[in-house]
Amino acid sequence: MSGVAAAHFPKQLDIDIEPESTRNRIDTSGNGRVAVAVHSTQFTDEDGDDVRFDPTERAVRYRFGTTDLLANGGGVRPVEDGAVEDVDGDGADDLVLTFPTDGAGLTGDETSASLYWERDESGKHGYAGSDAVELPDDTSPSDVDVLNYALSLEHLEYAFYRDALASSGGPFSEREVERSEVANYFDRPTLQYSTYQQFEEIRDQEKAHVEALKKTISDLGGTPVREAEYEFGYETVPEFVATAARLEDVGVSAYAGAAPSISSSEVLTSALSIHSVEARHASYFDTLSLRRAAPDPFDTARSMEQVLPLAKQFVASE
């Protein structure tokens, strides 16, 4: 964080979601908009000087949404530059921004939402603010929300393979993979010596999933989530394969859990076509891990609330 940025921004933004509502209630059934007031704040900077942060003085990049969504590079941008008004009656101007609710990740279970100020175009946040919210009981994720959820997982999977294989800048060469313990499980040389190529094909398929989801989200008027920074923690090929099996299993269960929330038949068809490919990936890595490729007649579906903590363990802390 630069000294210039630190001098102008408090460590915690003071925000008020739906400031005209005493209970910060977000009405997702109306015009699909939510107002967020960014308050002027008095704070002490790194030099010990008292400074007032005035959100109306300079243009910065804001993102709004659930904390989990924002941490994974998601969230929505304001639909306009914002209005200047004294919301809290303290005599100082506040900046009131309006955001679309579609794409903010609100499912109806949230008790708070957040606003991030981004340091630059990388999507990483500098300072953040959170506020309590109240949502209708019948709030359900939009198709854009579901697709961005899927995209965050596809970003994770593509980065996992890309960052591992030497052909895309990773540490594992074709020789190392195909002479590894896991490749030697295959008695047939044609299988053993095609292991690396299989990994490359899976990597390229995950990239294709990322590109397809980004295009669909944009076509629907949404903002695709960005790729986060990840830490996978493997050092050997067997450790890489074991992690791949876990990631693919989570991906399969995530698609199964999210599919019923999709309202568009075209979007559902696209999502299911990805789901079946993810299942093939999972079976392949289960085989390499000496596990049964199809141990059960039915797979267990996982909800967003179950999947996000599993995925976040690979997201690097900022």
Write structural notes for this entry.
This protein is of the alpha+beta class and 318 residues long. The chain folds into two domains: 3-132; 143-312, Up-down Bundle (Ferritin). 38% of the residues lie in helices and 15% in strands. It has nine helices and nine strands. The protein has a four-stranded antiparallel beta sheet, with no helix packed on it. A hairpin with a 6-residue loop joins β8 (112-118) and β9 (125-132). The chain is elongated. The termini are close together. 40% of the residues are buried. The model is unreliable at 1-6 (pLDDT under 50). Pfam families: Ferritin_2 (PF13668). It comes from Halococcus hamelinensis 100A6. This is Ferritin-like domain-containing protein. InterPro entries: Ferritin-like (IPR012347), Ferritin-like_SF (IPR009078), Pigment-catalase-like (IPR052965). Residues 1-30 are annotated as: Disordered.
